[in-house]
């Protein structure tokens, strides 16, 4: 049967003869010619775009390889610098003695210069370039805290902000899914051998040659406890190693591949026990005094200030201006490397209503500056995300904590003025009010988040302690409020922190607040008293660097 269905692809047959057919054929040829040309050009364009995409991918890969190579060179250079600094630390006693003199004078104009090494770590005065000299703070006016305080206004008044802040790559934000923080999930594993330091999920402990060894799920060594040497060795998630040695004579040696290192010896003054620490920082030494106390079988040390002020100084620090006073931090005029590195994490305020808020920014800035100087970590590209940075709410909580610590120092100052020995008011007394307390982290710490993964906090991070010591007294519950990124614990991560580490955080804040008050003109002009125990302390331990090096060698032999 013949198919009568019309073909839609063909034009209907028309009358007109051969001539008409030739005309139609010619017209169709002309109409189809551009389409044929386009069909030939299109594959060529597609090929060219593909080649461009492949070239762009190759360029991006090459750029990443160059960045990784540059980062590796930075890390190698930093390692070489740390080794050179360690070698330089082993100087002769005569060379070390040059940096070991502590200024115990009571002259008002020199309260903030214990020694050069200490200033380089805790004081921002070397960055101020005399800016505070324009403050003209008057300690006499500070005696009237109930009225608007001209001294506060003058201290916080600075040059008009006219500088453009240097835009540096923001720091990498904390993520618990980072490759370096990978591992099995589960619950943190409690430990008796390493009290206060729970292990990550899947970690186990075993006895080897008389030592307790804790290993991760992948078999890597996390911790070693050698009872024979009184030594604890910890390997951090960032590749660092920390050694703590407690000897029977109550000497303690703290050696770390990153951050502070010190040697501590007992010191008795008029029947009262103190601990005398000699810190080794980048080949230089400085020393501090602490008051020891024992809790749950653990000895903790509380910072013992070598300088107290008259009552009007503490009243002034707690005063409030009627309106916020503009203040430009001198390091904003020509931003140094540490500030550029952490610019995505911390920005100081431009005005202050109270010296407490100014001191809170001072503590954070000094911590970041010290951390950067010791690490020399440099910066690598990171996403412009500041969700874990220090917020106004975190600063407010810090200022409140600064106020509590200043108040505690004022109580000690009153005891000294009455010729009484200041009481060792440590973190236990502070947590006893059952209120949350906020601390700036003093050094790198390895922690475990609720999922059982390892993460860290480092100097300049902010944590909030939300509990008294837990059962056994070795640790407290805390929440991370601000962190700088990489393998660091994220905001709101719930962690357990050893009580000894929280005490060191309080010490760190007390020391830095003390230096911050001394850096103000009010502090320079206020009357000061040096307590008897600090008037003639022991000299710095000139053998500290050698002792630290010796323990590092012993630790390496123990692990081998």
Task: Please explain how this structure is put together.
With 560 residues, the chain is of the alpha+beta class. It has a domain of 334 residues. The protein contains 14 helices and 20 strands. β3 and β4 form a beta hairpin. The relative contact order is 0.16.
Annotation keywords:
560 residues; single chain; 14 helices; alpha+beta; four-stranded antiparallel sheet
Overall 3D shape: globular
Tell me the fraction of residues in β-strands, as a range.
Answer: 15-25%
* Cα-atom radius of gyration: 32 Å
Distance from first to last alpha carbon: 96 Å
Oligomer, anyone? Answer: single chain
Strand order of the largest sheet: 1-2-3-4-5-6-7-8-9-10
Continuous helix count: 14
Largest sheet: 10 strands, antiparallel
Uncertain runs: 1-16, 18-45, 82-120, 125-181, 377-385
Secondary structure category: alpha+beta
Total number of beta strands? 20
Task: Summarize this structure briefly.
The protein is α+β, with helices and mostly antiparallel strands. The chain has helices at residues 17-89, 93-97, 116-122, 125-128, 150-156, 311-317, 337-341, 355-375, 392-417, 427-431, 499-519, 521-525, 532-535, 544-559; strands at residues 204-208, 211-215, 221-226, 231-235, 241-246, 252-256, 261-269, 272-281, 284-295, 298-303, 308-309, 325-326, 351-352, 437-440, 445-448, 454-457, 462-465, 475-482, 494-498, 528-529.
Helix-strand blueprint:
Elements: H1 17-89, H2 93-97, H3 116-122, H4 125-128, H5 150-156, E1 204-208, E2 211-215, E3 221-226, E4 231-235, E5 241-246, E6 252-256, E7 261-269, E8 272-281, E9 284-295, E10 298-303, E11 308-309, H6 311-317, E12 325-326, H7 337-341, E13 351-352, H8 355-375, H9 392-417, H10 427-431, E14 437-440, E15 445-448, E16 454-457, E17 462-465, E18 475-482, E19 494-498, H11 499-519, H12 521-525, E20 528-529, H13 532-535, H14 544-559
Antiparallel strand pairs: 1-2, 2-3, 3-4, 4-5, 5-6, 6-7, 7-8, 8-9, 9-10, 11-20, 12-13, 14-17, 15-16, 17-18, 18-19
